[in-house]
Specification:
Layout lengths: L2 H8 L12 H24 L6 H47 L2 H29 L5 H145 L1
Helix pairs in contact: 1-3, 2-3, 3-5, 4-5
InterPro entries: Adaptor_Cbl_N_dom_sf, MLKL-like_MCAfunc
């Protein structure tokens, strides 16, 4: 959709026509015309049996004249009805512009261009007719052509409006469908991503649990080994202490034995010396 074009479309202005009569007066005039037309038709029907054929012709002419005048008043109401329809569809277009996206704009572009041209043609026709001189004779001469023109404009406008509404509906539906499809795809990708993260997290937790169990087993093995080493070390220390004590005890006994032996040898030597000295004397 060409947004500037549609904004210009929404700013269309109709030529304001000063109304000499109020709505009530216009309605009363139409009612009076209808009453006069009924009278003329009645006179025309009743005059068929009259001896003066001219009366029937005059009544028929009067009826045609009154119907032409009635058309002039009805044309005004038909114009207002057409303007009301245009204002209504402009509201719809404004809503389409406000709620549209790029995809919908692309589909609505050609339709709205065509509608833009149609609406501008209608506006030009309406402005031209409403700017006419309001003298009665011109209204009388143009009453039938204006009525036919309004009818053609209504048909043309209704076709354009239907085209816009149908296209907008399908474009909006298609746009919503594409948006839902896009959301579904994003949701599927998100779910798949979350599932992958969950699987990876579960795998990581499993690896951490295995590592924890391995560390626990190794810690228990190290503790058991340390306990065994401590027991072996204590046993070796006890055995070494016992060997040291036994060695010291044996050395002590040997030293006592040597001391006793030395003492005994000394005594024997002293005895020998004494004996030798006594013999010499």
């Amino acid at each position: 959709m060409q947004t500037p074009r549609m904004r210009n479309l929404l700013r269309l202005r109709f030529v304001t026509k000063t109304k000499a009569n109020s709505k009530n007066r216009s309605a009363n005039s139409i009612d009076t015309l209808g009453w006069l037309i009924d009278i003329a038709d009645t006179i025309q029907t009743a005059s068929t049996a009259a001896p003066f054929p001219q009366i029937q012709g005059a009544a028929a002419a009067l009826s045609v004249l009154l119907r032409c005048i009635q058309k002039v008043y009805q044309n005004k109401e038909e114009y207002e009805e057409l303007l009301s329809r245009i204002k209504s569809i402009l509201g719809v277009i404004r809503k389409v512009i406000d709620e549209s996206d790029k995809t919908m704009c692309a589909r609505m572009s050609e339709v709205l261009k065509e509608f833009d041209a149609t609406l501008r043609d209608i506006v030009r026709t309406i402005n031209s007719e409403r700017q006419r001189n309001d003298k009665w004779i011109k209204q009388f001469l143009h009453s039938h052509s204006v009525s036919d023109s309004i009818l053609r404009l209504k048909m043309k406008f209704d076709d354009a409006r239907l085209n816009v509404l149908v296209t907008a509906t399908f474009a909006h539906h298609s746009s919503m469908k594409e948006q839902v499809s896009t959301l579904d795809e994003k949701l599927a990708v998100g779910i798949a991503s979350q599932a992958a993260v969950a699987i990876e997290t579960k795998s990581s937790l499993s690896r951490l649990q295995q590592q924890s169990e391995t560390i626990h087993s190794e810690t228990q093995a190290q503790s058991l080994l340390m306990s065994q080493n401590q027991t072996d070390l204590m046993a070796a220390f006890t055995m070494q202490s016992q060997h040291i004590r036994n060695g010291l005890h044996a050395q002590g006994k040997l030293a006592v034995h040597h001391h006793l032996q030395a003492t005994s040898d000394l005594k024997e030597h002293q005895v020998w010396l004494q004996t030798t000295s006594f013999v010499s004397k």
